[in-house]
């Protein structure tokens, strides 16, 4: 029996010529066909396929069976060459059976998936009825297909688009060429520009599939021409030209000229092209794919940069490639090649490489999918050697391009290749001399893999492959203890084989290999546990070292996800009674052990993979991928409902993980740079808690550690392989996802705290674990808040044990953040006081007694003590008088200690807190006086002075105001200084106290204030009322004698004010501009008012103006203005 295999070419010309081969008369060429053929007959005539409209179904004739097989496998030219003469009925049946009979492929080429459920490539219309396939079905069922004609291997017809509110009726001319049950070319006058067939092509094709008996079938047009005489041929040509003269006349004349020319090229070959005559031997047999549109659409999506749903559309294209692979359609590889070429031509790659920036996460994931698809393609178990060589050349070409993305983002790595692992202790090349692994590297390496291994072939080929007498316990055993086969290979590579089998439409074989791989993983896990138990002391003494250079979770090939999907898809189908046809005959009881199920096997596989101890990879993207892949696997696990069988598996795996030492991420030995297990452990904890609480807590507590943040590495760390040394010696490496990891650690702790409510022993254990392992103050604070909320739920009494845990965590946060900047510090302090209040009065007293280890002096006085002394707190605690006094005494003691330590910021708060205790208040006041000379600013002293006046201590206020004045210095141009109001207040206070106090303060004012306007303001205020009297605003009568300006202390103030005006005037004139002249004249006017307050002020001012005219006579315009105003 002769069969034709797949043949794939990536360089098919587009568009293909309408006629694929040449046909000629018998005798004109030795290869010509013999005999003449009759005209057309209906497809559904004698000998048509069963399944028509008749009620009876006769067995198929041998002619139909043979014709159908030939039509599927042989190009028609080979049929003609093989047989000298082909009987007309045979020829007609071959032509009939050459059209596709399944709608599945037509649907695949006219929608994004086999069900036609996804949106079109435009991404603009989500109405499913607008998809080409569904629209085509609607047109067919609506009777809009007409004039259907099949001539040889060519189908044509008209399809009418009915009129709508927005567009008129449109009649489209459609033609379809086909060969060996595949549509090889399509044309439609609608002008469709898309990757997929338009609705009109779909309607015509489905018409031929569903109603073959209504399609009139003619043999190829060359057969009709063979039986015509010369006159008939001439008439035929002339009528053809007459009907279509505007379109074909130029071409007809050109062809006539060439035929009449003896030496023309057209006369050098035998025969003439016939577009209806079927395929030649050299023609590719593949479905029509519009390569140009594939390239244009991908280019368009890439140019949109992730906007307008372009990422989704590209993922749909990748899904289409996978769909083609499952259908074993050679266009899968062809389409992926076109997509890859556009990805490689993306101008952003060069731009990002030049700028040193990383590509977006979604775009990076598209590249990952691209690499994974190429892995599937090169691992096709039935591809030919020349195909694989062609793909390898392409992959190497892309791989060599400078901008080709690296596998792990922006970092190179020294991970093992697909077929080998680095032996322990083997030194690796320095990073700068290692070739970077690109997204295509694994596919290139996979080209070296083959499927010829006999053991592998037996695993894939049979459900019953086993060896029950095989009891070899060596590492390389081909069978496990049950006699079932195992497959020893680099795990990601073995899983890539499973994915390739699934992708290429071999789910049964993929399931067999997946189960063999899982059996191997289980056996390996058991042996690792046994090895650790035998050598536990030695390994514990030696220290930690990583056992897995390449983790399975987050791996580019996603091995655990592949196994899980392969097993669960079969498992769900079995449970729901919807097993696909290709899996219905699987002997479930043979592939699985007693009591096992596919879902249980999948769950156990996921637990093994998630629990693997593995090193954190380099680079942001690779680290994010580890987190993302772990979350994806856990999301899949959470969809599985736990039953007794699964709980047993959870228990078994939990024990394995706890006892497997360096092989497990939850073992006793953990490498410093291992991927943490917090997220995984939280899932295990919540799953096991209802069934085995002790085991659940063991898992969660073991997982709480985060050794990468420990300040010192364990001694064992020094023995790790030198090619794993951290990037930054003596510090943790660059973990870009560290904040996410710490948040997951916090979530794990919070979950345990919630579960442990009411169990003081467990709460204490969890608290110790948190204090030991969590290093982030913000996360400890969150845990403290969580514990507080849980402990004070409204529907129950407060859980005092959990409240104490909350308080302990809050105290730890206070200690951690005391000496570091934290923008949430004030919130943390307020919360701690609230928490201590809930715990009780002794907790408040305790934090005040040890305030210096928890708070800054400012926090202790302004927040802690103030809140404790508030009425709200007293009412909340239901305190009696004695308890109130004790709490107040502690608060006053705290306030005085803080005032001693930080008088600048705490003195006022201390005075306020000590108001009701005379001794404490006096002590606080003395602290202020002692600090005033050196440590306090004039602003702080003025504030306290005003407070003293408000409290009824004017002399103390005066004392503090004078001390403040000694620290003050106002220059001539600081007429808007914020301290001016304080100076005016101090002078008013002194004036109200009496002449002596005013006399004492004026020298301080003269010394500290050089601003003329301020001094003149003070001078006027002092002359309005009598010293010793309360301000005129507060006293209706002023019977005392006003102070003289000719005597001390006002004479001193007056002279200082006049001197300030003179100095300020000269300073302003040094850099004055014309636009300030008018302002300057007003300033001199105020100066004159002050000069005139003196006994001889008029003379002094006149002399002052004369001096100005002499000194600044160059400023003529200004001096003219002075002369006009002041003479």
UniProtKB/TrEMBL annotation:
GO terms for molecular function: zinc ion binding. Pfam families: ZSWIM4-8_C (PF21055). Residues 172-209 form the SWIM-type domain. The keyword Disulfide bond does not apply. GO terms for cellular component: Cul2-RING ubiquitin ligase complex. InterPro entries: Znf_SWIM (IPR007527), ZSWIM4-8_C (IPR048370). Keywords: Metal-binding, Zinc, Zinc-finger. PROSITE patterns: ZF_SWIM (PS50966). Residues 415-434 are annotated as: Disordered. Residues 416-431 have a biased composition (Polar residues). This is SWIM-type domain-containing protein. It comes from Esox lucius. The lineage of its organism: Eukaryota, Metazoa, Chordata, Craniata, Vertebrata.
């Amino acid at each position: 029996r002769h069969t034709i295999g797949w043949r794939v070419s990536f360089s098919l010309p587009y568009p293909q010529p309408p006629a694929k081969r040449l046909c000629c008369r018998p005798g004109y060429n030795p290869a010509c066909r013999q005999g003449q053929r009759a005209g057309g007959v209906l497809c559904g005539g004698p000998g048509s396929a069963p399944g028509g409209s008749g009620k009876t179904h006769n067995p198929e004739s041998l002619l139909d069976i043979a014709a159908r097989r030939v039509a599927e496998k042989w190009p028609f030219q080979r049929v003609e060459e093989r047989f000298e003469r082909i009987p007309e009925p045979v020829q007609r049946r071959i032509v009939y059976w050459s059209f596709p009979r399944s709608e599945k492929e037509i649907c695949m080429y006219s929608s994004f998936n086999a069900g036609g459920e996804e949106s079109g490539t435009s991404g603009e219309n989500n109405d499913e009825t607008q998809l080409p396939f569904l629209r085509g079905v609607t047109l067919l069922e609506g009777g809009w297909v007409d004039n259907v004609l099949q001539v040889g291997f060519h189908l044509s017809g008209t399809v009418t688009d009915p009129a709508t509110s927005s567009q008129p009726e449109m009649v489209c001319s459609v033609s379809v060429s086909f060969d060996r049950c595949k549509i090889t070319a399509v044309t439609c006058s609608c002008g469709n520009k898309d990757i997929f067939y338009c609705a009109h092509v779909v309607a015509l094709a489905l018409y031929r599939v569903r109603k073959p008996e209504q399609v009139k079938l003619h043999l190829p047009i060359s057969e009709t021409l063979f039986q015509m005489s010369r006159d008939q041929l001439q008439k035929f040509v002339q009528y053809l030209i007459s009907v279509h003269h505007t379109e074909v006349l130029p071409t007809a004349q050109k062809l006539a000229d060439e035929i009449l020319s003896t030496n023309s090229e057209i006369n050098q070959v035998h025969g003439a092209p016939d577009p209806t005559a079927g395929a030649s031997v050299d023609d590719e047999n593949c479905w029509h794919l519009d390569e140009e549109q594939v390239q244009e659409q991908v280019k368009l999506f890439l140019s949109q940069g992730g906007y307008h749903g372009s990422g989704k559309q590209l993922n749909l294209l990748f899904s289409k490639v996978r769909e083609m692979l499952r259908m074993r359609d050679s266009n899968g590889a062809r389409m992926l090649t076109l997509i890859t070429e556009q990805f490689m031509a993306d101008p952003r790659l060069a731009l990002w490489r030049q700028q040193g920036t990383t590509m977006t996460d979604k775009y990076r994931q598209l590249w990952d999918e691209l690499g994974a698809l190429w892995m599937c393609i090169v691992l096709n178990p039935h591809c030919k050697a020349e195909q694989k060589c062609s793909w390898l050349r392409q992959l190497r070409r892309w791989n060599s391009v400078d901008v080709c993305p690296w596998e792990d983002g922006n970092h190179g790595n020294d991970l093992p290749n697909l077929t080998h692992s680095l032996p322990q202790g083997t030194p690796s090349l320095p990073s700068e001399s290692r070739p970077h692994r690109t997204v295509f590297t694994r596919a290139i390496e996979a080209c070296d893999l083959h499927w010829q291994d006999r053991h592998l072939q037996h695993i894939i080929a049979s459900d019953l492959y086993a060896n029950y007498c095989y009891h070899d316990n060596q590492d390389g055993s081909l069978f496990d203890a049950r006699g079932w086969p195992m497959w020893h290979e680099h795990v990601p590579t073995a899983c890539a084989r499973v994915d390739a089998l699934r992708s290429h439409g071999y789910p049964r074989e993929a399931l067999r290999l997946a189960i063999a791989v899982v059996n191997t993983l289980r056996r390996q896990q058991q042996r690792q546990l046994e090895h650790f138990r035998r050598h536990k002391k030695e390994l514990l003494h030696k220290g930690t070292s990583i056992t897995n250079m390449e983790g399975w979770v987050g791996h580019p090939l996603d091995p655990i996800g592949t196994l899980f999907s392969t097993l669960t898809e079969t498992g769900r189908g079995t449970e729901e009674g919807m097993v696909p046809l290709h899996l219905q005959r699987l002997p479930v009881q043979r592939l699985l052990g007693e009591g096992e199920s596919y879902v249980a096997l999948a769950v156990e596989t996921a637990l093994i993979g998630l629990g693997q101890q593995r090193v954190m990879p380099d680079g942001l993207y690779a680290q994010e991928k580890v987190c993302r892949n772990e979350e994806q696997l856990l999301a899949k696990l959470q969809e599985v409902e736990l039953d007794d069988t699964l709980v047993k598996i959870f228990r078994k795996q939990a024990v394995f993980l706890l006892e497997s030492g360096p092989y497990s991420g939850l073992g006793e030995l953990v490498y410093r740079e291992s991927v943490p297990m917090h997220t995984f452990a939280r899932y295990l904890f919540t799953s096991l808690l209802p069934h085995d609480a002790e085991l659940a807590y063991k898992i969660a507590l073991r997982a709480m550690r985060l050794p990468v943040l420990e300040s010192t590495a364990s001694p064992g760390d020094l023995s790790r392989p030198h090619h794993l040394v951290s990037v930054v010696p003596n510090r943790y490496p660059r973990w870009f996802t560290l904040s996410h990891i710490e948040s997951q650690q916090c979530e794990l702790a919070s979950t345990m705290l919630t579960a442990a409510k009411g169990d003081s022993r467990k709460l204490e254990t969890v608290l110790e674990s948190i204090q030991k392992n969590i290093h982030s103050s913000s996360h400890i604070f969150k845990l403290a808040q969580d514990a507080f909320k849980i402990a004070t739920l409204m529907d129950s009494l407060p859980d005092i044990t959990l409240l104490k845990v909350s308080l302990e965590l809050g105290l730890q946060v206070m200690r951690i953040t005391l000496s570091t900047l934290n923008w949430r510090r004030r919130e943390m302090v307020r919360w701690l006081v609230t928490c201590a209040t809930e715990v009780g009065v002794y907790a408040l007293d305790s934090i005040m007694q040890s305030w210096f280890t928890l708070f800054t002096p400012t926090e202790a006085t302004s927040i802690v003590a103030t809140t404790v002394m508030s009425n709200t707190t007293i009412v909340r605690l239901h305190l009696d008088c004695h308890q109130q006094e004790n709490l107040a005494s502690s608060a006053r003691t705290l306030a005085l200690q803080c005032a001693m330590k930080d008088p600048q910021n705490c003195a006022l708060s201390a005075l306020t807190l000590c108001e009701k205790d005379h001794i404490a208040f006096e002590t606080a006041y003395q602290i202020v006086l002692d600090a005033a000379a050196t440590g306090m600013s004039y602003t702080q002293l003025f504030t306290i002075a005003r407070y003293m006046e408000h409290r009824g201590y004017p002399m103390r206020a005066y004392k503090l105001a004078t001390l403040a004045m000694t620290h003050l210095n106002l220059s001539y141009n600081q007429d808007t200084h914020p301290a001016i109001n304080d100076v005016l207040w101090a002078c008013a206070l002194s004036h109200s106290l009496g002449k002596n106090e005013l006399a004492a303060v004026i020298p301080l004012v003269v010394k500290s204030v050089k601003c003329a306007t301020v001094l003149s303001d003070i001078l006027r205020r002092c002359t309005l009322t009598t010293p010793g009297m309360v301000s005129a605003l507060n006293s209706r009568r002023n019977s005392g004698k006003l102070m003289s300006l000719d005597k001390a202390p006002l004479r001193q103030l007056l002279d200082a004010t006049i001197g300030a005006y003179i100095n300020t005037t000269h300073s302003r004139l040094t850099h004055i501009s014309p636009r300030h002249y008018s302002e300057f004249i007003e300033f001199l006017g105020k100066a004159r008012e002050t000069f005139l307050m003196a006994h001889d002020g008029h003379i002094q001012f006149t002399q002052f103006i004369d001096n100005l005219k002499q000194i600044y006579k160059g400023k003529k315009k200004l001096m003219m203005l002075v002369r006009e105003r002041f003479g």
